[in-house]
Specification:
Strands 5-4-2-6-7-8 form a 6-stranded parallel β-sheet. The protein has 2 domains: 169 residues, Rossmann fold; 129 residues, no CATH class. The protein contains 12 helices and 8 strands. The protein starts with a strand and ends with a strand. The radius of gyration is 22 Å and the shape is globular. The chain is of the alpha/beta class.
Length: 305
């Protein structure tokens, strides 16, 4: 059971009817409620559940430009196919298994799905298990979230339904809902690449070109497809045409999430008021940039503790 406190109003002075509001919810909303839902919490869960080798593997494959476990989705799109191939290729000690050097070279490309592909499957399984394990019991429901409003959430958790009592009919879980049996939890990046690009590099041997292609094809499957996701939920976006107020809470305004905000902006009433909440100074800058990119004329940027 949740513990009700002072219920802070997120539209305090604007007089927008509750049934004319949309609340866009990001992970900062769950963190505000002291829910262990960050990627740092995911890493700790992985370590506790005997997957320390998985932590090391993801660091090897994806920590080229940033710390993987601090920003998983962006890091997934910054993979380096060369480092992945070098890790997965057969070692010199394995060469005796092959009758000819060309067979050993062919083993380089064959190793990608068997090593890298399986590790990525293990990562996905661990992520799914972690999402299902996140505990939301006993949180303080300190925000006023109207029953009649609509909610678009990037979160997998059921905080809105189970803690705030919002009807599932008014909620769109963009990336999966753990209350729905066998629902897919979508995690990914925005960096689509052409798998044939390695073949334009004449300095690469063919086995390495094929291996790089295997890596790129594997990671293209981890790309989020906002167009496809939006199309799958077009009825929800169509229902926003009478919406006069949008409140964004707990979102970091990551570029990978902008297509959804753009679709909302195209769906709501032309004079719609946007309240863009932010937490850090970096998020403040991103919120201002998002407002400009969305072409908003009627908006407020507000600090959300």
């Amino acid at each position: 059971m949740s513990m009700k406190t002072n219920n802070t109003e997120l539209f305090p002075t604007f007089g927008i009817a509750e049934n004319e509001r949309l609340y866009i919810i990001g992970n900062g909303f769950d963190l505000h409620h002291s829910i262990d839902s960050s990627y740092a919490h995911f890493k700790k869960w992985v370590m506790r559940n005997m997957h320390s080798d998985l932590v090391g593997m993801m660091d090897v494959f994806f920590s080229n430009e940033r710390e993987f476990w601090g920003d998983i989705e962006n890091a997934l799109g910054e993979y380096d196919e060369e480092s992945i191939t070098d890790y997965c290729k057969p070692t010199e000690n394995d060469e005796f298994k092959y009758d000819h050097p060309t067979q050993w070279q062919a083993g380089i490309e064959d190793s990608i799905p068997y090593i890298f592909g399986r590790i990525m499957e293990d990562f996905k399984d661990a992520f799914n298990d972690w999402v299902k394990s996140v505990d939301i019991c006993g949180i303080e429901t300190d925000l006023h979230l109207p029953q009649a409003s609509k909610y678009l959430t990037f979160n997998y958790t059921d905080t809105l339904e189970s803690a705030y009592g919002i009807s599932a009919q008014n909620i769109l879980h963009l990336h999966g809902n753990r209350l729905v049996p066998k629902d897919e939890f979508i995690i990914g990046h925005g960096n689509h690449r052409n798998p044939n690009d390695p073949f334009s590099d004449d300095d690469l041997l063919l086995p390495y070109q094929n291996a790089f292609k295997e890596v790129i094809e594997t990671m293209n499957k981890w790309r989020k497809n906002p167009t496809q996701i939006i199309a799958a939920h077009k009825s929800f976006f169509h229902s926003l045409n009478s919406c006069k107020g949008v409140c964004v809470i707990g979102l970091s305004y990551n570029p990978i999430d902008m297509p959804y905000l753009e679709q909302v902006a195209a769906s709501v009433a032309p004079d719609c008021l946007w309240v863009l909440n932010y937490y850090s100074n970096t998020d403040h800058s991103k919120a201002e940039y998002a407002a400009k990119k969305l072409g908003l004329n009627n908006y407020n940027v507000t600090r959300f503790e």
